[in-house]
Structure formats: structure tokens, C-alpha cells
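Table S2 (continued). Query chain:
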Amino acid sequence: SVPLGIMTSLSLRTGASIPFVGLGTWKSATGDVEEVVYQAIKTGWRHLDCAADYGNEQQVGKGIKRALDEGICERKDLFVTSKLWNTFHAREHVKLACQKTLSDLGLEYVDLYLIHFPISLKFVPIEERYPPEWTYKAGDAMPQGLVFEDVPIRDTWEGMEEVYEAGLAKAIGVSNFSASLCMDLMKYAKIKPAANQIELHPYNAQHTLVKYLQDNGIVVTGYSPLGIGSYVPLGASGKSVLDEDVIKAAADAHGKSPAQVILRWGVQRGTTIVPKTASVARLQENLDLFNWELTADEMKAIDGLDCGQRYNNPADYANYPIFA
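Corresponding output:
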């Protein structure tokens, strides 16, 4: 478990530091994201979690540029993650996709580049449609409009290694990978994956996978760390983990918000987290996780909320059960 105080980052296998808390930019409206990124950097955030598929990397880049131009920090102080989309899995398309991301972000390199999903879809040229999203033709229904491409992960990973060797990414990793996929990847990877970004919150704690990754030097990043919130506009319904009694009790005991308790639980189990917020006040609150800690009993009670509840499962929307 992570000690108190100044340890606000973890080390990747490359030796680089990844801050424990990153700003998630998924579903950040393109009109707001530049301002949110700028305000986040101004507030002290140094880790930004991006992806081609979020359709807002140009705006993220403008927010970064504003902060750098004002001298709030230098590029070397920031940790920027992006992700390779499913349509760029062929080895010869990986660098192309990464270069497009860098061009949109206005950066010479990303600190971490991840394979977004272990799902390979038919290539859509950048000049035709970008981001290409899931279906081969724009506006087609899911899952009927999906066109899969038989690209083994090994081919994609060799493309990722080329991106690393070219200096376009300082570290490479994966996202939404199961333990067995990681085990296989570790057997042939010349450059081992530095991280695996997975859905993690108290309802989907994935204790076994987290332990496997940590035991094997793969940093764990938890997306959707507060659970259902981002998925309600997509049709998700059900109880919010923020309303659980054990969360509220811990919040009361520490004089913190329920969200801070859940985020602290994520950090205290040694995982990095990428919460999303558009509120400047909450930007401050979500960073206030390091000068207090949950008790062992509180951690155990929150661990006990795990029920395997996933909100992002391609089995549901793509008929492609990667987590089965």
C-alpha cells in the first residue's frame, strides 16, 4: 500500500515517473476540454490521459500549449498518455496513428502510448474519417457495422515497439488486456509493456488482475475510478458507488468527500487513476489524496464492495466478449 506524504508518482519499468492521479479526457466536450486541461495544469495536475478515439486531442493540445506558453510548467514536467485506436492495429499503421496523435496534441512525443483495446478493426484512412470510431462506415449501427481485421496482437506490438524505438513514445503499454493476454505478450515482447489501463472502481476491483500486473512490473492505471458516472449518458443505470454506506462513513471519518475516499482507495492500492472532471473546484479536490490515508479496515470494507460490475464491456455493445 502507498505511504503518505510526498509519494505522488510511481515508477514505470523505463525508470520514468507516472503521477498517481491523471486527468481523464474521455467524454470531455471538445468545447470545454482546452480550458479544463489548462486549468488542471494551473492547479497542479501533471498527468493527462488522452486517446485518438476521444476526438478532442487537438483541444487538449491547445490547453497544454497555453500552459507551457505561460511558463506554468515545462514539457518535461508533464506526463501525457495516448492510445492507439482499433483500426490502426496493422504493424504499418501504428506509427501513422501515433504521428497523427502527436500532430493533434502539438507534441514531439507522448510519455506513454497504449493499445486501446485488444480488438482489431478494418483500417479507415485518416483523410477519410478521423477519429474513425467503431463502425467501418460512419453512422452504421452497432454491432452490425463492425468490420474486423485479423491482426494478431504480436503484429500490433511490433508496431508499438517501432514507435518506442523512434522516440515518439517514451513508454508503451496496453489497455483493457486480461491477465492471459498480458502473459502471452510478455513471452515475445522485446520491450515489455510498461502499463495496463483497465476499468477499476470498488464495484470492479479486479484484485487478481491488479496483483498479477503489479507482481510483473506492469503499472496499473484505473479508468472510470468513480464508477457509473460517465456511463449514465450512454444508458447505464444502477446504484452509484458514491452512495455506499462504507464510502460515506469513511468520508465522514476523514472530513473528505465520497469521491475523494474512492480515489484514495485507488491510489492506496498502488494503482494510478484517471478521474474526469470539468469543474475547477473538483480539480483541486481530486488532487487532495496524499496527506491522509484510509485505515486497513476501511480499505477492506471498500474492497468488499467488489461485484464484478463493468460499465465498459465490448460484449454489450460490440458483441465481442474480450473479458469472458
